[in-house]
Write a structure and sequence with these properties.
Helix content is 39%, strand content 14%. The chain is of the alpha/beta class and 525 residues long. Among the domains are: 10-53, no CATH class; 230-273, no CATH class. Helix 15 (404-422) packs across helix 19.
């Protein structure tokens, strides 16, 4: 059985000529015919070269890996019961799912209050993030969750003012922070992330001291790739400007031959790449102190699906530095333009990575060492996945990080809003009505909450808020079924593996061994 798909995918706009007959290992057509124009990845690479490494069309889509891992969250079932309740009085009139509490806090006291255990991951300088930020920011603030401004925003902002290698003004970062704060009611927070280039530019110091940001996040990587971020640039002057700012830009926009080739239309886009970080304990501790000295109330770390020793390193450094919040992003995620094969083939998959993380947390905890609140990420999109992830790492996993799913909600909400204003509703949507209030089921709730300000709310934000409301209700229902009425009550025995591989990897007993002793005791009693 092959877990990977090769040579033909919607992500790279490629397909096989012999759709029904494909070589499993390579993905090549069983018969490769002289005369084919090259619709597959190999064929397309013969005339577009490195362009085919990346998902397309860039700037108007998000993408995530399509590799099927041997074990995933569908290999676990959520366990319910008929006895008692935790987190609430065991009374049938009180233990109802609307009474499940999803509120939590992250970070050291006083902590950031959240209405639900969700963090939006770093959405950075990609066009898709910028174009949908209005809806994401307002939707996140109204939902009471954390929103992270991702890497390279200041460096990619052509209006940024940079003096002596440090950013002193960035209208784009200012816009992103303000759009969250405009709707902030004391829950959630806007967090500014930094990679190598951001660190050199002093982006986080600027955000802390000039924009009123209280939380910052250091970034070691993400689940979709183990290299720095990359985007496509369609403007020669911008590509040259970014090279001047220290970015790696391919092909070289200062090369006369490349300029001539671009002007002739031989290629239409440059690639901007970031650098990989070089982590040391001394450097990490120094940077955390610098950020706290610069005014950060909360310092986070995000790492990706690196090898187990680097996961242990990240957790240990967080423990020593008393980091406020630690996010681990498993393989397979993605929101922007990570190399497609890398997105599918690098890093530790979610169940394995989260199980290792739980083991490492246990080791530190048993020695009395500090374990920071943890969020896990890796393509999670629905309430059952949220519950299973929280249970798999209980009591250490406190939140779920997601990016692609809320971005989808923002894009759909924005699109529906446009179609309503144009009077051009598709049949699939039009059956619900022809106004915002008719189509978006949460509109009446938001109108009552916001009053006249509802008219200012972008449709993308209504989409995000509605999606979060769906997750909130769904998660409450699952928790009530498991007799857990607050997040603190969720435990590892709330889920059970239905495959022996899932049991072996997670360390949770296989379903046929689950509750065995208790069941025997009941039968014998």
């Amino acid at each position: 059985m092959s877990y990977s798909k090769y040579n033909a995918t919607a992500a790279t706009l490629t397909k096989n000529r012999t759709l029904g007959s494909v070589v499993p290992g390579s993905g090549l057509c069983v018969t490769c015919v002289d005369g084919c124009v090259g619709m597959c990845e190999v064929g397309k690479s013969s005339y577009r070269a490195g362009e085919v490494i990346y998902p397309q069309p860039f700037g108007i889509m998000t993408t995530a890996a399509e590799k099927s891992y041997p074990v995933d969250f569908s290999h676990f079932q959520i366990m319910g019961g008929v006895v008692g309740a935790k987190g609430i009085e065991a009374d049938s009139d009180k233990a109802i799912f609307p009474n499940v509490k999803l509120e939590t806090r992250i970070g050291q006291a006083p902590g950031i209050k959240l209405r639900m255990p969700v963090v939006y991951g770093g959405l950075g300088s990609t066009d898709i993030a910028s174009k949908n930020w209005e809806g994401l920011a307002a939707g996140a603030a109204l939902s009471g969750v954390v929103l992270t401004v991702g890497e390279n925003v200041c460096g990619m902002d052509m209006e940024s003012e940079i003096s002596k290698g440090r950013v002193v003004r960035s209208p784009e970062l200012e816009r992103r922070v303000k759009l969250f704060k405009d709707w902030d009611d004391g829950h959630g927070a806007v967090v500014v992330q930094a990679n190598v280039e951001d660190g050199r530019l002093g982006v986080q110091e600027y955000a802390l001291q000039k924009l009123g940001v209280e939380a910052v996040e250091l970034k070691w990587g993400q689940g979709a790739k183990n290299i720095g971020g990359e985007v496509k640039i369609h403007n020669l002057k911008k590509a040259q400007r970014l090279k001047e700012r220290g970015y790696v830009v391919l092909p070289d926009p200062a090369n006369a031959r490349i300029i001539k080739s671009f002007d002739k239309g031989a290629f239409k886009e440059f690639e901007r790449h970031s650098r990989v970080g070089m982590v040391t304990e001394e450097g990490f501790m120094k940077r955390v102190k610098e950020l706290r000295d610069a005014g950060a109330k909360y310092v986070f770390l995000k790492t990706g699906a690196y090898r187990p020793q680097d996961l242990a390193r990240a957790l240990k450094f967080c423990s020593k530095a008393k980091i406020d919040f630690f996010t681990v992003d498993a393989a397979g995620g993605g929101t922007g333009m990570s190399p497609w094969r890398m997105m599918n083939e690098w890093g530790v998959p979610p169940i394995e990575l989260f199980s290792l993380l739980y083991q490492y947390c246990e080791k530190l905890s048993k020695r009395g060492e500090y374990v920071p609140p943890i969020a896990v990420a890796g393509g999670l999109a629905f309430e059952d996945q949220m519950f299973k992830a929280l249970a798999l790492g209980a009591p250490y996993f406190k939140c779920i990080e997601m990016a692609r799913a809320p971005l989808t909600a923002a894009m759909v909400g924005k699109t529906i809003g446009k179609r309503i204003s144009q009077g051009d509703m598709p049949v699939y949507i039009g059956r619900f009505g022809n106004t915002l209030e008719e189509v978006f089921v949460c509109s009446s709730e938001l109108k009552e909450r916001l009053g006249k300000d509802f008219e200012k709310l972008p449709p993308g934000a209504i989409g995000v808020y509605s999606y979060m409301q769906r997750l909130s209700q769904g998660l409450r229902q699952l928790m009530a079924g498991a007799r857990k009425f607050n997040l603190e009550s969720i435990s590892r025995d709330d889920i059970v593996p239905i495959t022996e591989d899932a049991a072996r990897i997670s360390g949770i007993p296989y379903i046929m061994e689950y509750d065995k002793e208790e069941a025997e005791r009941i039968l014998e009693g």
